[in-house]
């Protein structure tokens, strides 16, 4: 069985962002199933905590963008959320019985699947419930965990110190500053202090280019791979891979896998400069 650590060793990892979300309603069973059938080594999804303490797979805080009703997830029960049509905004899937999944269901449905899971809630209790579910399924080795909320990620790391986590926003900022300000001599110390073992970022954030050749190579020396989201153009993915990026998250895994079949990332010089 492939593990999350195996995924980190991939040279050109193509990961399904919210499942095969270009072809199916995002973060739903058909999207996840399709992504694994296509051969994606890892599937990304998002986690929210419901009012009654259940963990559901959904990106937004509210349900209106993708269902037939607009509910706030943290104020709604699982039963209320289950009553929604998760395929409503995709005409081909409307009324097909597609519903919001729980984390328990995901891990049961794909007992060997590797997942990148983003904890969306700012409430640290999501880390507690998440750790409990992972323990119940003995799924520690097949998840990479991230969160935009540093307090949530710190709580989870204390509960599950052996579980792989991506860098928190604060850790990303520190890594970028060290790289940009000529403080690379601090990198060995930073690699110890920064607990995230994967650098998952957009290539550009606002007017700041986050990913460059210097950052990629410097963190690679500490065993920290760079993975970029969200990449939907094959030529963009090829450019990133040539520069040393180890993985991309894409909404269109079928297109990306077909376009990059047989691709050699070391065939051309990287476009970035230090």
From TrEMBL:
Name of the protein this chain belongs to: GP-PDE domain-containing protein
One GO-annotated biological process of the protein: lipid metabolic process
GP-PDE domain boundaries: 12-260
Listed InterPro entries: GP_PDE_dom, PLC-like_Pdiesterase_TIM-brl
Gene3D superfamilies xrefs: Phosphatidylinositol (PI) phosphodiesterase (3.20.20.190)
Phylogenetic lineage: Bacteria, Pseudomonadati, Spirochaetota, Spirochaetia, Spirochaetales
Organism: Marispirochaeta aestuarii
Pfam families: GDPD (PF03009)
Single annotated GO MF: phosphoric diester hydrolase activity
